[in-house]
C-alpha cells in the first residue's frame, strides 16, 4: 500500500474511541437537559438519555421530555422506546444505550450521556449485573406479599440482613420485589452477583445548585407542567394501566403522576397536588445527590464549572469530529 493511503474501512469497525464518553448528571430540575442541549448544539454532539421514564411513549409533560423542536435540533437517543404497559428495566437500558453510543461513535461523532437516573448510570459505568433470571412463581408470591404487608415491611426485611442493599432500593417497589425474589431463591441479593465489564468508559460530570435555587426551580417546573396539561396526561396513563396494581407498573412509578391523576379525578386540588410533588421531588433530589457521590463517585460542581469541564472533555474526545 503506497505511503499516505488510508487504511481500508472494515465493516462494523468503530472509529478510534474517545478515552472516556462524556456523561452529565444533576438532580431533577437543576437544568442538565438545557446545558446538554446547549453543548450539543455547540459541538454537534448526540445525546444519549439516561432517564427511566422518558423511555416511555406518551409521558411527555410529567417527565420534562425534550420538545420536538429540541429533538429536531439535536439527535436524541433512548427516548420513546417503550409502551407504558411494558416494564423497561436496567438490563434493556444498558444494552440499548451501549448500542446507541456505538452508533454515534461509528458516525464519527461524540455521544453525550445525560440523565438523572443514577441506577441506570451506575450500570453503564460498572456493567450489567450478573443476577439470575426472574422466577415468575417466586416473583408472584413476593408481589402478593407486597400487597398484603406493604413496601416498608419488605424493605425492613432486606435491611435486617443487608442495610446497604435496602438503601440501594431507593424505595422502588419493583426493585424491592426483585431483590426479595432473588434472595429467597439464592440467599444473596442482586448486588452481590457482580457485573459484566462495561463496554465503554465514562467521564462523569455532575452539578447542582444551592438548595433555595433548586427549590424555586422545582416549584416553577411543577407549576409549568400542570399548566401544560399534566393532569390530562396522567388520566391517559391511568386509562392504559391499573393505578392500584402492586407493584405498580414501571411507568406508573414516575414522580408526580399519581398526584396529577388525583387532580384529574378531583381528589386533590392543583395547589395541594403541586405542593406534594415539590416535596417528593425535593426528597428525590437529595437521594440523587447522595447516589451521585456514592455510586458514581462524582464531585458536585456548579453549572458553570460543569459546562467548562464538559467542553474540555468533548474537545479531548474526538478532536477531528468537533467543529
Question: What does this protein look like?
Answer:
This protein has 323 residues and is of the alpha/beta class. It folds into two domains: 21-128 and 196-321, P-loop containing nucleotide triphosphate hydrolases (Rossmann fold); 136-192, Histone, subunit A (Orthogonal Bundle), CATH 1.10.20. Helices cover 51% and strands 7% of the residues. It is built from 13 helices and six strands. The chain has a six-stranded parallel beta sheet with strand order 3-2-4-1-5-6, with helices on both faces. α1 runs parallel beside α13, α6 (151-161) crosses α8 (173-186) and α9 packs across α12. The protein is globular. The two termini are 31 Å apart. The relative contact order is 0.18.
Write a short abstract of this structure:
With about 325 residues, the protein is of the alpha/beta class. It is about 50% helix and about 5% strand.
